[in-house]
Amino acid sequence: MGYEKLLLQGIPFSRLLLGPETEVQLSDLAGNAMSVSVVCATMLAAICAPQLRRERSRSPGVSLESFRVTQKHDAVDGGVLAERGDLYDCMDVEMDQRDFSDVFRHVTKGMAEKSYRSSVLCTCESSGATAKEPKILECTDCGVCICHDCSSRHRIGSHALKEINVCTESGRPDPHVFERELRCAVPPLLRLGKGWEHSVEDAMGMESYGFQLQQVDRKRGHWELIYGAWEDFGSSRQVAEIRVVIGRTGTLDRDLGVAAYLRCFAPAIRHSNPQRGPLFPHARLILKLSKLQEPPRWEIPSQQKKSVLKIVGSSPGPSQRVQVGLTDEAAKSFRNYKVTKQYIPRVQSRNNLIQYHGNWKTWPSTLDISGDITGLVNGKYQRLSCEQTVVHSALWRRAGSGGRPTLYLLFRPDVLRSGLDTAVICATPSYRDGHEVCELHDWIPENALETTAHQTKAKFKEWEKAPSHLKVEVLSPTVLMNMKEESFHDQVCSGTIETSRATLCELNGLSRGVVDSLLEHNESSGNEAVTELDLVGRSRARNGKRLSIVAAPSLLKYAAEGKLPLEFSKWYRLPTFWSFGDCQLHVPTRPVEKWRAAYGRKVKFERFYDPEESNEYYQVSFSTRSSENALGMSVLTASFAETSSSSSCLSS
Ligand SMILES: [Zn+2]
Ligand SMILES: [Zn+2]
Fold first, then answer.
1. What does the pLDDT look like over 336-388, one tens digit per residue?
2. 181 in Cβ contact with 82 (< 8 Å)
3. Which pTM does this prediction carry?
4. Angle at 223 between CA 227 and CA 213, to 5 degrees
5. Which ligand has its closest atom nearest to the C-alpha of 153?
6. Which ligand is nearest to the CA of 124?
7. Sequence-separated contacts (24+) of 292-299 with Cβ below 8 Å
8. Are 626 and 536 in contact (CB under 8 A)?
């Protein structure tokens, strides 16, 4: 059977140099082979076979070639359909709504300052902690922030660090407390108002989608909220997002505020000619603390202008390669290395992409940019000394004066490394802020010192005021939580071990679509009214994701408002009859560690185990446990017919 097994793996045995191997050895050889083409063919067969069988039962002569993998009601070539939106049926129903900019003006006034103070201001804070040291230093050139404690462990010589004041009398705000405050203050559900589909081409169909608050993140200098819109109540693709930044909306920007960016994914998810690479916002709204009196207005990108700039460099200084210590040896070995043709990037460029530039050791310290008719980016840019905190340590600044804003020339990296990094002129010293003014085509700093390469093509990105009727609406939540009088702890204590299925919370008012979406991967237990969600078994990943999209946003908001009958940051005393941690079902005893002596020249001890026992511990006890969860979630659909409401419970 060895030959046959090799053949099944797609390995032609007749072409192998085989000797007197036994059948068993050939079998092993085939068994150890991992042939990707065969694995893929098997997967394809598994995908196609059920459909083929269904089609054959209708007409026996049907051929595989007439099949195509398509998605459910996907007639518009991957486009976004209004019918798949969660608000499609209730478009005409008058909903209680407020305006996004009104709500967020209040948020700006009350929370922008606190948001900045509680944000991540040093690398040591990125995992949720707040630096012990209240003294925070900031580079006035590149905007890097570091606490006084960490500054002794990093190379900070190249930065112009200055102490900034981020403390109140009581120190900096606790980020965990602030997160709860923020969740209470911001709306959980948004919708695009009327008119977006006509004004923004890529927003086609988006007016019938609701945007749910999906994430609240503590970032550098600000907090970020992400609202997501999904097809088919969270069971299909994500089609758009609104990102809201609260605190510092740009690096080094002293004027705090809120910035909201709308991105429609339609160009990236359509089937024909999809857009690849970064997706730029389709609309933005910027609210600043100093300008709260002005009426807020959404902005949309205006027609892209192209132009040719003249960039002349002078007073050469060391390039980044010299700064990191590369020598002629490196350049020489690149020159001598022959690159296989297939690995040469298929990118048109005036610079050699495989070897160092002839002048690789020098970069200009001053750049003189001219040729912009509007005069926006013209002027002298000085190189800043900051090393390692900006891409390629390349940062030039034009100081602002006489109404002209400060501008920076820096690189936006192609993080996938599938294209060239792009030089951009920005209003802030970080490409992450997205405040780009113009993008240079195929430019590296060495070009500024070559007379033949002074002319550079540039694309300008400008924003114009959106029509004033374009609004984002804040919807009042349709999902309500039943307030419980009795605290969860009392409920648990009053039960017995057998009947202690206390309900932690109950959400009412989930729409039919949401309930169907939640139940899609669950088998009903026979009792139609109650369906326990499978959160530990086969469909746990799918159900978990679905829950996090449709039910978690409202649940988390209520939790932040303190409406749950249980405080998560408090320790409760368990009832005396509960022997927590002793339950053989949830915490089975591990197999005992066994050692035996092996007698040789020296006595050695080695560990041994009983496979049966080990299997029992890891597999069997886990599967019995899944039917008896410590924490579960179920959907009650009984009341649907009469009251058209449904609820989901988290019970313990
Ligand atoms: Zn630190
Ligand atoms: Zn710096």
1. 988 888 878 788 899 988 889 999 999 999 999 999 988 899 999 999 999 99
2. no
3. 0.79
4. 20
5. 1
6. 1
7. 292/105, 292/108, 292/109, 296/101, 296/105, 297/465, 297/466, 297/468, 298/465, 298/466, 298/470, 298/471, 298/472, 299/463, 299/464, 299/465, 299/466
8. yes
421: CB partners within 8 A, 6+ apart? 391, 392, 411, 412, 413, 414
User: For residue 132, how far is its CA from the centre of ligand 2 (angstroms)?
Assistant: 23
Question: What is the phi/psi pair of residue 486, to 5°?
Answer: -80, 140
How far is residue 227's CA from residue 264's CA, in Å, rounded to a whole number?
Answer: 12
Residues 182-196 have pLDDT tens digits of 999 999 889 998 899
Q: From ligand 2's centre to the CA of 353, what distance in Å?
A: 29
- Confidence (pLDDT) at 645: 34
CA distance 137 to 354: 40
Please give the Cα distance from 438 to 427 (Å, whole number). Answer: 10
Residues around the ion ligand 2 (C-beta < 5 A)? 139, 141-142, 159, 386
Q: Where are the domains of the chain?
A: 97-121+166-301, 306-328+370-460, 480-586+628-651
pLDDT digits (tens, 9 = 90+) for 268-299: 888 888 888 788 899 999 999 999 888 899 99
Of all ligands present, the nearest one to the C-alpha of 126 is: 1
How many A from CA of 384 to the centre of ligand 2? Answer: 8
Q: Rounded CA gap, 526 and 510, in Å? A: 22
Query: Which amino acid does the sequence have at 2?
Result: G
In contact, 2 and 27? CB cutoff 8 Å: yes
Q: Cα–chain-centroid distance for residue 60? A: 47
| Ligand 1 midpoint to CA 391 (Å) | 21
Q: Please tell me what DSSP assigns to residue 618.
A: I
